[in-house]
Amino acid sequence: MEKLLDGIEEILLMGPGPSCVHDKVYEALGRKSLGHLDPYFIRIMDAIKADLRTLLDTTNTLTIPISGTGSSGMEACFVNLIEKDDPVLILINGVFGMRMQDVAQRLGAHVENLEFEWGTPVVVDPVKKKIAEKHYKIVAVVHAETSTGVKNPVAEIGDLLDGSDTIYLVDAVTSLGGMPIAMDAWGIDALYSGTQKCLSCPPGLAPLSFSDKAVAALEARKTKVPNWYLDLTMIMKYWKGATRAYHHTAPINMHYGLYQALQLILEEGLDNVYRRHRHYHDELVAGLEGLGLSMLVAPGSRLPMLNSVNVPEGVDEAAVRSTLLREYKIEIGAGLGPLAGKIWRVGLMGHTARQENVDRLLEALKTILA
Amino acid sequence: MEKLLDGIEEILLMGPGPSCVHDKVYEALGRKSLGHLDPYFIRIMDAIKADLRTLLDTTNTLTIPISGTGSSGMEACFVNLIEKDDPVLILINGVFGMRMQDVAQRLGAHVENLEFEWGTPVVVDPVKKKIAEKHYKIVAVVHAETSTGVKNPVAEIGDLLDGSDTIYLVDAVTSLGGMPIAMDAWGIDALYSGTQKCLSCPPGLAPLSFSDKAVAALEARKTKVPNWYLDLTMIMKYWKGATRAYHHTAPINMHYGLYQALQLILEEGLDNVYRRHRHYHDELVAGLEGLGLSMLVAPGSRLPMLNSVNVPEGVDEAAVRSTLLREYKIEIGAGLGPLAGKIWRVGLMGHTARQENVDRLLEALKTILA
């Protein structure tokens, strides 16, 4: 029988996620499984909740990982908050805003969009105008648009919604653990993320947080959540209280990995982690520009952890990625949608954001593009 | 900072899942992450598909793990096959049949049930009568009812549906890898399972298989699948073909674990694995009866991997479980629903089904119940 696992080579993961994983997180994944109702496992669950609150700068009780990858977090936020014909406004400037629209429409929401050019951020003024004209149950935006490398003005949009009963829903898949998030101060009511970006844990869980306002909206539903697996009214009974009620069997070992990944971030210190992301982003951009390459996104809107690089005229972008992977053992990402073939996406997420990784990629690109 | 992972003790997992995990599977979980579109990872995906087909005895192309725990497999089967008001018949004799009903109702199906006493199997004759009276789009049943320890007559119900266009949907969460399943021969069209039972891999993935008939029903939908995350029309483009389309980031390291768990089963040989489950089930039952305990389920309907033991009069069942866990480092399960407080559930799933584990539990129970 072929032993494929023995043939796995270590790849430097500099794409849009998954990112490089610390050895301590790999070790954590292989710790002995406990039962999902074992009191010791519940202690680990409680520690994960507390650490996620710290990263999100929130006091939200309902702050837990969902048992699926980042996109299951998106699904969970929308399916718990939407009832048929609810008016939802989605701010779109990339693939993940488009995905939000698709998710919300499938759930029967009345979805409206405001669209902005891919590679540029959401602009606050048209949003202000739109929400002044009509009341939406939910306004949703992506914090760090992984498809373009653009940072959206999440705090400023939150200010617009201050005092309203609209639920403010934010995708923090790529931002969490790599740049500051202040869920409470920014007025975010529902937020989801993923483990395989700046948390530097393999994919498999989706951190999620609901404010009291979002929980109240959930509890005021007239209909059952049309998704048993992601129904937070049941899932929260497993995640809080003295007696835990079985809902589904939690992915035990993935939780060990997430716990360890959060510990590493908190040991380094959030400010240090954010500074490191920013620093190696600057190093990378300077190096790329030194090679004659240019960035898709204007400086003020760039994400530190996801760098979109314009593919130079006449270069076969797929061949470059393939050579990087095969010969240099470095993975970078392709463009998606209208940016397919036009950009490379270089991730500096979590544990990947290190000097040696920036250097290794720049050296390789220098040789390949020469 | 507290280091909770260092405090994890090895527990003998003899509950209703998760089950004991082989060291090779723990090692697999900690292998270096690859990108979800890395050609080498795609080879691992293809091997998983092939191995799952062998375990299920099917040629179904659409045989893949869903990125969530077993219950996400249930959700995926129903949400991909149900459209509003579709008539669905669910055969219920335990918690997981009830869960099917809840899942299907939330999706807008017109659900009818046939209920059977918990602890006894589904009876074929009333099913025959019911499906003669009315046409159902889906008939669903649980193969191994984990809440009671009962085996349902899945092959016989499949015979009733032979030649009809009704989709036959089976929960194989607890049966897969512990007792024979012949998906094609039994006429099963849609099946889901979980990794944390007889596959002896930690929870986090849900093997799923659709027959061509089920795929045709999916493709004939008039409406989009109302769940983006679990939409198989998109997910299958990631799992087959020469060019793989990104849908969501697969839980890479969980797939390593599943791959290794499947390898271990195939190396031992399916017949040997099933014989081992049956053999240690017999040993366990004999030992329990030797202690004066009795089984909930009649001999002909007992599952080998999930043994429901009647709690003797006057015994505090929760105290016994707690002592087993704290003092003997053995986990067994409690009863659910109407069986709460009345039974213990002893798992002999996958790697747990070994002589030394049976002996250790029997010794402990002998002392505790003395």
TrEMBL record, chains A, B:
UniProt protein name: Alanine--glyoxylate aminotransferase
Instruction: Output one GO MF annotation.
Output: alanine-glyoxylate transaminase activity
GO BP, sorted A to Z? glycine biosynthetic process, by transamination of glyoxylate
Keyword annotations for this protein, in alphabetical order, are: Aminotransferase, Pyridoxal phosphate, Transferase
Q: Which positions fall inside the Aminotransferase class V domain? A: 26-360
Q: Does the keyword Transferase apply?
A: yes
Q: Which organism is it from?
A: Desulfosarcina alkanivorans
Cross-referenced SUPFAM superfamilies: PLP-dependent transferases (SSF53383)
Cofactor(s) named in the record: pyridoxal 5'-phosphate
Q: Tell me where on the tree of life, at the top rank, the source sits.
A: Bacteria
Q: Which residues carry this modification: N6-(pyridoxal phosphate)lysine?
A: 197
Q: Which family does it belong to?
A: Belongs to the class-V pyridoxal-phosphate-dependent aminotransferase family.
Q: Which residues bind substrate?
A: 345
Q: Which Pfam families match?
A: Aminotran_5 (PF00266)
